[in-house]
Design goal:
Length: 179
């Protein structure tokens, strides 16, 4: 695996290996299997960034479950704009179903808060949150995160679904922008 990568003229350094990522995904899958047995939860993965996490997680989940997708956007370049746009909303009947949000990364929490309030309008039987990465230093909300894969420093990351202006999503490992 490479120690650094250059994307659109910015240099990123290796932060998390694909082995550690897969270990974190496996841990989340085991916990969800244990917590949601016989409940047929609906996973709602937040596009675009979470597509690889969702695919890998669902392959490790053994209980009965369903998956769908919502799409929001808040990032422009390497920073959050603070304004969350819903591009694809909830299309399923969530009434009385347990919902598990799948996020690639929780940063300020703005996106999560917007996604939560959108989902709650549909009266689900509880909403849980599973995020692969979490930046505790950047988090500004009080919403508790039920399943966290790995805590990461407050740096801009690329790889494993996360992009910098469209590129970098296919990297197997996670790289961090040097500040
Ligand atoms: P928040 O709203 O919590 O500030 O940011 C959440 C969303 O912004 C994430 O779902 C992700 O799509 C994007 N994001 C946050 N941090 C990063 C990062 O370090 N790298 C990339 N590529 N996207 C990020
Ligand atoms: Mg996201």
């Amino acid at each position: 695996m490479r120690k650094s990568v250059t994307i659109h003229n910015l240099k990123f350094m290796l932060l998390v290996s694909s082995r550690r990522i897969q270990g974190a995904v496996t841990n989340i899958a085991k916990k969800i299997d244990r917590d949601f047995k016989n409940q047929n939860p609906l996973f709602l993965a937040v596009l675009n960034g979470s597509f690889l996490f969702a695919a890998d997680l669902l392959r490790k989940i053994k209980i009965e479950c369903e998956i769908s997708f919502i799409k929001v956007s808040s990032y422009s370049g390497t920073g959050s704009t603070g304004k969350v746009n819903t591009l694809i909303g909830v299309n399923e009947n969530l009434k009385k179903r347990p919902v598990i949000i799948l996020e690639d990364i929780v940063d300020t929490g703005n996106t999560l808060e917007a996604v939560m309030s959108e989902i709650k309008k549909h009266n689900p039987d509880g909403v849980s949150i599973a995020t692969l990465f979490f930046k505790p230093e950047a988090y500004r909300k009080k919403i508790a995160l039920d399943y966290v894969g790995l805590e990461v420093p407050d740096k801009f990351l690329v790889g494993y679904g996360l992009d910098y202006n469209g590129l970098g999503r296919t990297l197997e490992d996670i790289y961090a922008l040097e500040s």
